[in-house]
Specification:
The protein has 383 residues and is of the alpha+beta class. Helix content is 30%, strand content 13%. It contains 13 helices and ten strands. A hairpin with a 6-residue loop joins strand 6 and strand 7. Helix 1 packs antiparallel against helix 13, helix 2 packs parallel to helix 6 and helix 2 packs across helix 7. The radius of gyration is 19 Å and the shape is globular. The two termini are 28 Å apart.
Length: 383
Amino acid sequence: MAVQGHYDPAFKVVRDVFEENFTARGEVGASVCLRDSSGRTLIDLWGGTHADGQTAWTRDTLSIVFSCTKAATAFCAQLLIDRGQLDPDALVTDYWPEFGANGKGMTTVRHMLGHRSGVPALRSPVKSGGFLEFDYVAERLAEETPFWEPGTAHGYHMVTFGWTVGELVRRVSGKSLGQFFKEHIADPYNVDFHIGLPTAEFTRVSKLKVHKPAVGDPPSTFLKAMLTDTSGLQALAFSNNGGWYFDRPESWQAEIGGAGGISNGRGLAAMFGSVFGERPLLSKSRLDALRTPVSEGLDTTLRIPTRFGEGFMLSIDNRDLPADGQSAILGDGAFGHVGMGGSIGFADPDIGISFGYTMNKMGGGILLNDRGQSLVDAVYRCF
């Protein structure tokens, strides 16, 4: 396995850790990218193979980045807020009247962004293929009774975030989530990130290798809850999806704004890097607002402590918990998002960097495993 790409010699430690991920931590195929606030690329590396073990992972290989997609969706909402078209303090029903059904009438836009709207799952079974139909899931969520009174608690909206926030984007902009993201973020800022992948790009995608826990690995708190109550919130959030499987072409094409995005390290670093430079995506006041905590403490869905700003994960340090994949440790002023299995993108305005890491071998848990965290740690050591 040869690591390819380029890096600033000042960041050789990151290159070394990236290689160690292959030689010592079981990496199969991966990419990592780091940019500074001027847009200069400090690291752009890739290596390994697709999940088939034969096809080389190249400069432009893509893979599913799961919940990193929430950041793309949140950027769309934040852009509308910055333009004065969406008010974070307004009621959701001002834009989406149907959402007020069954006790959700006092839900605010900020509740949606902070995983506080109370609909992290659907109770009754989702029809076969339902997650591939944006309208269907949005309508189901509008009708749903919340799992808690909106605003009184937070719980990770594992996939439904793509509709709770994505439908607001659609209602306000008049465009689908994927179309809005492409026209206002991906194309203007040269971001290789897709919410709804065109068929012409399918050959670039590496499928994923699903994590298989080793004998004796302690289960995460979320997994224990899911296995204990197969009809409870955790099981519904994870499994009630109409048979959706992320790694099929029909899923790549669907605009699943909570978990279906496709990108690579360069794409994630470019997306988060859009907040810097001469033409920043967001105003300084909005940038400061989205990295201010709106939800902290025990997560009703994940059953671990989590921290969120308006649509973005903040640093989460749960190293005292026994299972892997329950932390994502960043700088105090950083904001970003992880994807299930271990991908991550983030920006740290305090030191002026944006970062992206993607891979095709999933790790355990919802947050980072040792491959991604080791790269993040190495970046911070360089500063």
